[in-house]
Design a protein that fits this description.
The structure holds 2 protein chains of 2 kinds.
Chain A lengths: L2 E3 L4 E5 L4 E3 L2 E3 L5 E7 L6 E6 L5 E3 L5 E5 L4 E6 L8 E8 L6 E3 L3 E6 L1
Parallel strand pairs in A: 2-12
Antiparallel strand pairs in A: 1-4, 3-9, 5-6, 5-10, 7-8, 8-9, 10-11, 10-12
Chain B lengths: L3 E4 L2 E4 L5 E7 L6 E7 L5 E8 L5 E2 L8 E7 L2 E6 L8 E8 L6 E2 L3 E5 L1
The chains are: A mainly beta, B mainly beta.
């Protein structure tokens, strides 16, 4: 069955520290992978996506993610976290760019001053 | 560009009544719209996919007679929760796409059924 797992429900990091949010997927075909951020009162915003090619993808707001097929992972990273990064982060997998998405459970990020 | 709005942002209704939620693509024509449901601190679960002018395709386990979806124009889709009950209280999110583009998400509608 197709699924996405985000092992960490809640993560707290200090401002300026590095961040890595984990995402593992189970998908039969070549997946289209996405990371979204959800802030209160706002819709999901796409941070980055991976379809093919270079396995290290750059996104907005200084985020990047690396696709590792052997580990079925698509972890999100940021070298230096800002207080404004506090939000809920969702990893998702789909069959194509605009098709049905399967979301992970989400990881809530808190940032300590 | 690619803005999706939802109205209302928050609605409270009494048990047994129906409530309609609108999803609009403001600056593009949405050939496909998706409706998701999100429980507190949980993931988004796809409820249905609607293509303009066609009947919606519902995911397994979603009652199509309870959650009526209409996609009558290229900029508007509506979700009507009929005979709402407290267990229908949730956060409903729509997304829209045009052609093969990525999905653009609305800000969501919080439904509380008393």
């Amino acid at each position: 069955a197709q699924s996405v797992t985000q092992p960490d429900i809640h993560i707290t990091v200090s401002e300026g520290a590095s961040l890595e949010l984990r995402c593992n997927y189970s998908y039969g075909a070549t997946p289209y992978l996405f990371w979204y951020v959800q802030s209160p009162g706002q819709g999901l915003q796409l941070l980055l996506k991976y379809f093919s090619g270079d396995t290290l993808v750059q996104g907005i707001k200084g985020f990047e993610a690396e696709f590792k097929r052997s580990q079925s992972s698509f972890n999100l990273r940021k070298p230096s976290v800002h207080w404004s990064d506090a939000a809920e982060y969702f990893c998702a997998v789909g069959e194509n760019q605009g098709g049905k998405l399967i979301f992970g459970q989400g990881t809530e990020l808190s940032v300590k001053p | 560009g690619a803005v999706v709005s939802q109205h209302p942002s928050w609605v409270i209704c009494k048990s047994g009544t129906s409530v309609k939620i609108e999803c609009r693509s403001l600056d593009f024509q949405a050939t496909t719209m998706f409706w998701y449901r999100q429980f507190p601190k949980q993931s988004l679960m796809l409820m249905a996919t609607s293509n303009e002018g066609s009947k919606a395709t519902y995911e397994q386990g979603v009652e199509k007679d309870k959650f009526l979806i209409n996609h009558a124009s290229l900029t508007l889709s509506t979700l009507t929760v009929t005979s709402a009950h407290p267990e229908d209280s949730s956060f409903y999110i729509c997304s829209a796409r045009t052609g093969g583009s990525e999905q653009y998400f609305g800000p969501g509608t919080r439904l509380t059924v008393t």
